[in-house]
Amino acid sequence: MEIVLTGTGSPLPDANRAGPSTLVKAGDTHILVDAGRGVVMRMAGGGSLPAFLAAVLVTHLHSDHICDLNDVITTHWIMTQGNVALPVFGPAGTAQFVERQLHALEADIGYRIEHHDVLTRGPNVEVTEVEPDDQFAVNDVQVSTAATVHAPARPTIGYRLEHNGTTVALVGDTLPCPGVDTLAADVDAYVQTVIRRDLVELIPNDMVQDILDYHSGVVEAAQTAARVGARRLVLTHMVPAPTAEQYPEWIARAAEHFDGEIVIGDDLTTVTTEQGEAHG
Asked: Quick one: DSSP state of residue 211?
């Protein structure tokens, strides 16, 4: 599998980082996890497009993780000429969110149907609301879910993807919890959104301080990776966003607790897992 960090940013606008999203390519099956701002452009940069998607997986309904789902839906609809459904999986509330997005796009949908004979109906989005401990298949990729902890955002869901003997866990915004441990156990790559607690604590702003109580820090993510036997820890959604010169410091902090591979980078950083990798 290839894991492409299609958005490593946060709610704070960043000229160099799109909003939170991760693209997983498992053979010909492309799966997008979350859809933050700029995701469609980053998908193009990562060698994919909405028309290629077999599914979108939503971790939770915070705006920074879903604000460009409407762009994914619209672009998929236009590129497939309305002939292919877009499967979207997410926690309770996802169906209502998608329905409201389609209502917001009513004028655009009407214009395009009137103008293009090949478009005879609006976007076909097949929403499945998932619960913890669900299992389902996206083509030849097996997906399992578990509850994560990001209150007051609830429910929140993490995902474990398995394909041809390789596994990836993508857990979204969360504190360390049993669900994350279940998803990330013995995986080839564990993708975790992280903050630097030591740096956030220095920012004199109450709203910034609030994020401390519902995100994993770099240290906590590394401790989780070590505890569950993950082979790689992939850091994304970094707050505050580091420069390339600061990456070694972030890696060193994680490496104090985890001796596997640690990946951090800009948008479009790509990690490849292969069948037959050594399992510790």
From this structure: G
Active-site residue set: 64
CA gap 148, 179 in Å, rounded:
6
The pTM assigned to this predicted structure is 0.96
- Beta partners for 56? 32, 88
The residues near 124 (Cβ < 8 Å, ≥ 6 apart) are 77, 82, 84, 85, 86
DSSP helix/strand/coil, 73: helix
**Closest residue by Cα to residue 58 from 76, 32, 84:** 32
Which residues share a beta bridge with 153?
Answer: 150
- Residue 76 CA to its chain's centroid (Å): 18
In a structure prediction context, what are the per-residue pLDDT tens digits for the chain, which is 280 residues long?
999 999 999 998 999 999 999 999 999 999 999 999 999 999 999 999 999 999 999 999 999 999 999 999 999 999 999 999 999 999 999 999 999 999 999 999 999 999 999 999 999 999 999 999 999 999 999 999 999 999 999 999 999 999 999 999 999 999 999 999 999 999 999 999 998 888 878 788 888 878 888 899 999 999 999 999 999 999 999 999 999 999 999 999 999 999 999 999 999 999 999 876 755 4
Q: Give the residue from 149, 116, 158 showing the smallest Cα distance to 216.
A: 149
Any idea which residue has 């299992």 for tokens?
Answer: 135
Is 267 in contact with 8 (CB distance < 8 Å)? yes
Q: Say if residues 270 and 3 touch (Cβ distance below 8 Å).
A: yes
Helices (H), 18-68: 39-45, 63-66
Whole-angstrom CA distances from 65 to 19, 44, 117, 250 are 7, 18, 34, 23
CATH, domain range 2-266? 3.60.15.10
Domains of the chain, by residue range, sit at 2-266
